[in-house]
Specification:
The chain is of the alpha/beta class and 314 residues long. Helices cover 37% and strands 18% of the residues.
Amino acid sequence: MSGLAGCAGELGGGEEEEDFPTQDIEMICPWAAGGGTDLTGRRLAELGQDPLGTSLYVTNQTGGSGSAGFNAIANAEADGYTVGITTVEICTISHLGIADVTPEDLDAVIQYNFDPATLTVPGDAPYSTLEEFVTYAEENPGEIRVSNSGTGAIWHLSAAGFAQEAGIELSHVGYDGGSPATQAVVSGEVEATAASAPEVAGQVQDGPLEILAVFGEERLDMFPEVPTLQESGYDFTMGAWRGLTVPQGTDEERISTLEEGFTSVYESEDFQSFMEEQGFGLVYRDAEEFGQFMESEYERFGGIIDELGLAQSG
């Protein structure tokens, strides 16, 4: 390996363990290829090979609103050779009754991202502003179908939360990630999506879609002309975050090695430029901070899901 300290743990009988890592590292993505989690995870894998001194490769294990991938991460051998590209849904799906996996089944490595939801529609839709969208939904309850990255996934909660805040009825349609959810709007399967700006950017800048509102506290550099919900009078914010985890019980020395390697990637000009060019938000938490953050998010989303009455929807 290069650069990082090896694991100095001991095996049974006092035999010292060999340096870590000495094998390829699998990075499990719970979402479909081409979406934001897949894209950022593959960039981390590519750039992580130098500081970690080994090959990293991404596998997409999708389904069940992320639960298939989260379970695959949690149930992998806790040896540091399986890293999960973990998203906010780890804090929601157990509250929804979709799966039992929670942040307690994982150990944190780092957080590297936060992105707010957007309300994105076809450019030729019968509404071109958020106000017109709400008016249309009020006059046609349930007619607007909004795609998301799976039942209980963050874009579902974002759209449902906004609908509750606006007092409108929307129909929610789940897909296996932000990319297929965006394509569903392009193909006309649905009338809107709540996916993030990076996931819809290509279809907005060079395609047929238009963003009506951003669900963050501030406008996005990528689309500075698009107002936030708060600017339009709705006191509601929600978005996705992404980080890296390993199965619960992984050796602390190995977690530290992974944390150090991926932190160096996060701080690199290559990764910073990639995230900014693609429109992904950069937010960093180290292993301890990310672990505490996941615990607080788990509690927060439990309350939100109860408030929205979604606990029985799974």
